[in-house]
Design brief:
By secondary structure, the protein is α/β, with parallel strands linked by helices. It contains 17 helices and 15 strands. The protein binds pyridoxal-5'-phosphate.
Length: about 425
């Protein structure tokens, strides 16, 4: 073999032992920790096979049947399959599968419905909204005028009457609903009524709950909205990417907003992986998985409450819950660091009525999707709740965290994420 060809064939382990090692370390870290990050999950091997295929080098600007390069007959079929599967799963008239991530999908959605400078009404990041809904530090707040609603500081719930009042005041061109940290069902019909009344478009970002929607465990926003966006890697359990679903009347503008307005060529390996992931959603196994995600989240909330901790809104309707640490007077930054010492991974999060800051909020967010993927059920949830409560109630006890860490590793060994090597 000539030298240039041998570069093409050499295995990662031989060519770049440093990166190979770090990937293995990361796999091991995952195997030995309990992941309660509500936005994370473990993708299926079938999807990872697709994303690590030769397609990861493909260039394919344009859309199936209207590309700027030749040689894309197989790629066109793959993207068309992804599109038709996405439409079918969510009952949408049109789907775009090219957005590189959820944030970019949202910007594409805004650009397809709005003119620069138009008014948006969306949920505040501090109340559970997302950066890309117009947070101060995000480009969206520089391109558009953004007014944001929150949740009731006492109940933690969306106050639809108040949102309606704000809409009547600011007269938005677009109302955005959907959140990254809202543990309750979202009433899309109610949002539709508000948007209609003020003559605004309605968009839902269902990134967190799309898996619940796909399996009929949360109302589907698609019939109520002009555009619906979602990431693919949270409850949907695919590799990282995004879907944008819309009514036919917005299809052409949406496709042009993704390409050429915002992006060049799409990542076709990931589109293939998303097509595979979409095929998972209609299986019995996936529906059962989501059912267990919900049961695990509910049980975790009840058990933490029984152990004396406070859950914002008093519980959860979905895959996540917000633990309010203000009664314990310990901040979420500290708690997440202490839990990591015990191999329990969470993220700090603001909670309704939070008196802390973004760096030191008085809450943590807990989600059940990843741990349910590795097969943890009610028995394990009870242990996890006890470990979390123990760490929070005894923050000075380092030996306790070491003991829990050993128990966590032991539990993780009994529930490997992937049962065979790659
Ligand atoms: C995760 C998330 C996103 C953005 O995802 P990225 O892929 O990280 O850009 C957008 N909206 C909501 C509600 C999310 O939770």
């Amino acid at each position: 073999m000539d030298a240039a060809r041998s570069l093409l064939e050499v295995k990662l382990r031989e060519f770049d032992p440093q990166i190979d090692r770090l990937i293995r370390d990361e796999m091991r870290r995952n195997e030995e920790t309990i992941n309660l990050i509500a936005s994370e999950n473990y993708p299926p091997k079938s999807a990872m096979k697709a994303i690590s295929s030769m397609l990861s080098g493909v260039y394919s600007e344009g859309y199936p049947g209207e590309r700027y390069y030749r040689g894309l007959e197989n790629i066109d079929k793959i993207e068309s399959l992804a599109v038709s599967r996405a439409k079918k799963v969510f009952g949408a008239e049109h789907a775009n599968v090219q957005a590189l991530s959820g944030s970019v999908a949202n910007i594409a959605a805004y650009l397809s419905l709005l003119e620069i400078g138009d008014q948006i009404l969306s949920m505040d990041i501090g109340a559970g909204g997302h950066l890309s809904h117009g947070a101060k530090v995000n480009i969206v707040s520089k391109l558009f005028r953004v007014t944001q609603y929150g949740v009731d500081p006492h109940t933690g719930l969306l106050d639809y009457d108040k949102i309606r009042e704000m809409a009547l005041n600011v007269r938005p061109r677009l109302v955005v609903c959907g959140a990254s940290a809202y543990p309750r069902t979202i009433d899309y019909a109610r949002f539709e009524g508000i948007a209609r009344e003020v003559g605004a478009y309605l968009m839902a970002d269902m990134a967190h709950i799309a898996g619940l929607v796909a399996t009929g465990n949360h109302p589907n926003p698609v019939p109520h909205c002009d555009i619906v966006t979602t990431t693919t890697h949270k409850t949907l359990r695919m590799t990282r990417g995004a879907l944008i679903l819309c009514r036919q009347e917005h299809a052409a503008k949406l496709d042009r907003a993704v390409f050429p307005l915002l992006q060049g060529g799409p990542h076709q390996a990931n589109i293939a992986a998303i097509a595979v992931g979409l095929e998972h959603l209609s299986t019995y196994e996936y529906k059962d998985y989501i059912r267990r995600v919900l049961a695990n989240a509910r049980l975790l909330a009840t058990e933490l409450q029984r152990l004396g901790l406070t859950i914002s809104t008093g519980g959860t309707d979905n895959h996540l819950l917000l633990l309010d640490l203000s009664p314990q007077e310990i901040d979420g930054d500290r708690v997440s660091t202490l839990l990591e010492e015990a191999n329990i991974i969470v993220n700090k999060n603001r909670v309704p009525g939070d008196k802390g800051t973004a760096q030191k909020p008085f809450g943590i967010r807990l989600g059940s999707p990843a741990l349910t993927t590795r097969g943890l059920g009610p028995d394990e949830i009870l242990s996890i709740a006890r470990w979390i409560a123990d760490v929070i109630l005894h923050p000075e006890d380092q030996a306790l965290r070491a003991r829990i860490r050993a128990e966590v590793i032991d539990l993780c060994r009994r529930f490997p994420i992937y049962r065979s090597t790659f």
